[in-house]
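BUG: 3D viewer hangs when loading the predicted structure for this chain

Environment: internal workstation, default settings.
Expected: structure renders.
Actual: progress bar stalls at 90%.

Input used:
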Amino acid sequence: MPPTKAAEDFQTKVKKHQNFKKQKHKLFRAKEPLLSVLMWGINHTINELGHVRIPVMLLPEDFKAYTKTKVDNQYFNKDVMPSHFKVKEYCPLVFRNLRERFEVGDDQYLYSLTKSEPVYSDPKDAKFLESFDRRFIVKFISSDEVATIHSILKYYHQHIVETRGLTLLPQFLGLYRLSYEEKETYVCIMRNIFGHRFRVHKKYDLKGSTVDRSASEKEKTKDLPTFKDNDFLQDGIVIDIGPEAKKAFLEMLQIDINFLASQNLMDYSMMVGIHDTERGEQEVVPPESPLPAEMLQQEGSDEEKDAFSFPSGGAALKREIYYMGLIDILTNYGMKKRTANMAKTMKHGADADISTVKPEQYARRLIEFIAKCIR
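Structure tokens produced before the viewer hung:
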């Protein structure tokens, strides 16, 4: 099938800039060269897309497309930017379409990810960063995960279209490869499940399994530990959002995990963050907070609802906001997981509630577990 006019225009623009790029006078200051390259790359690719007509519909070749930009001997801002680097953006028209469906404007995307450098949400975990305003997650992923995204992207996009963007799946917004000093780093940009308005006071990573599903002592020493299924049960947590919201939530979850099972994906988790409203009202944001004044906590603000937030129901004993979404969905039930399933079954027995099971069983067990936790 011949390329569309929009694709030809885009490819032409990329070729014009591929071999040599003169640095523009916009600073991308970050403590790490890799983050400076990321900020430069996002700024460049978004600006390039601004010159491309929005197609009426995406075509099969759009899900295989990519753009490459190579910068040689750049001299501007050299103290924080490598002299030679390359930026590759995967499926730019597809991800622009996804951002539109998730109601993320290019201006917001650009502002959040380039105005100030992303920061590590957990200094001990080098795989995850947050945009300075906490709207987006920057995740470093493996080449295998990039391959999985490519293999499911067409079906993921179709799922988002069919659900009108109402989903608990990760909201994939951009996919890049950054190259400098003979190193290649893959980056996926996603919406932050925990939103940007309120501070999360406790969080849980739930798989619906109880075998080896407790937070380690080392994890518990963190400022905001990630607790697991056994901790959730021991803490007696109840997600109290009311019967109508529970019904809608479980219907949405069922649709999403049916999609994951159809793609042979498993080992994902339901991430649950809890904001204690009364505690939040008493907290004071420290003066050194990097957030601008308009981004600080405003408990009574209803101007913008976070995509993954669910307020407690009217009959709830405590006023809380629950953030709930699916994470880590890029694991295929391949030979490695089948082997792990056999090993754990031999160790714990056939009836043990292990986490490594077939995708259909995994999906069914997770929703049954979550349904018991919500009222």
